[in-house]
């Protein structure tokens, strides 16, 4: 059972090296993320400090020997992780920004709805639709048409993934 859990954890997390990466001073291991992606770096010893060059690029949460990184927006930055024994590891982070809508009909990147109000958009090639907060808005896919319905006041994001894995993000506000 433990081996199965370790295998699952390894598949879900990005493994991180124990020592600082080799290379010229200041160089770090490359880490590529997509906007809104969350990864967990697992180490074999407790983390004592984490420094990030742009806190608007990445959210950071530490817990023992784990560091959870959340990509907040597109851009580049770096992160340095220090351990209790004084060793450090550095990452050069590149976050790919989510594509904004390229849907026919000129759909906006932000949608404002009332409760019970719905909007339909043409979305050729949509393979999956992810809704950040189902309690705020619901999305139905029917062929090439997306229907967005306001459920309760609040904000959420809708991520549309095409067959090639490219993502488009819409912000939805329900009043």
What is the CA-atom radius of gyration, in angstroms? 20 Å
| Beginning-to-end CA distance, first to last residue | 48 Å
Gross geometry: elongated
Residue-averaged pLDDT, rounded? 77
Which series of helices and strands comes N to C? Answer: HEEEEEEEEEEEEEEE
- Find the count of extended strands (DSSP E, 2+ residues): 15
Q: Into which percent range does the helicity of residues fall?
A: under 10%
Question: Beta-sheet strand percentage?
Answer: over 45%
Largest pleated sheet:
4 strands, mixed
Spatially, the strands of the biggest sheet line up as: 1-3-6-5
Structural class label: mainly beta
Unreliable segments of 5+ consecutive residues: 1-26, 101-107
Total helices: the number is 1
């Amino acid at each position: 059972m433990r081996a199965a859990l370790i295998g699952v954890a390894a598949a879900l997390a990005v493994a991180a090296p124990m020592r600082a990466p080799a290379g010229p001073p200041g160089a770090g291991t490359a880490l590529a993320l997509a906007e809104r992606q969350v990864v967990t770096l697992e180490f074999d010893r407790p983390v004592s400090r984490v420094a990030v060059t742009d806190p608007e690029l990445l959210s950071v949460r530490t817990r023992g020997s784990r560091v959870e990184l959340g990509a907040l927006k597109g851009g580049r930055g770096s992160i340095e992780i220090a351990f209790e024994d004084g060793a450090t590891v550095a990452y050069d982070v590149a976050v790919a920004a989510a594509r904004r809508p390229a849907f026919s009909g000129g759909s906006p990147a932000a949608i404002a709805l009332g409760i019970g109000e719905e909007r339909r958009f043409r979305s050729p090639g949509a393979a999956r639709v992810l809704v950040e907060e189902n309690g705020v808005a619901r999305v139905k896919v029917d062929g090439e048409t997306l229907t967005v319905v306001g459920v309760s006041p609040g904000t959420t994001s809708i991520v549309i993934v095409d067959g090639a894995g490219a993502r488009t993000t819409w912000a939805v506000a329900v009043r």
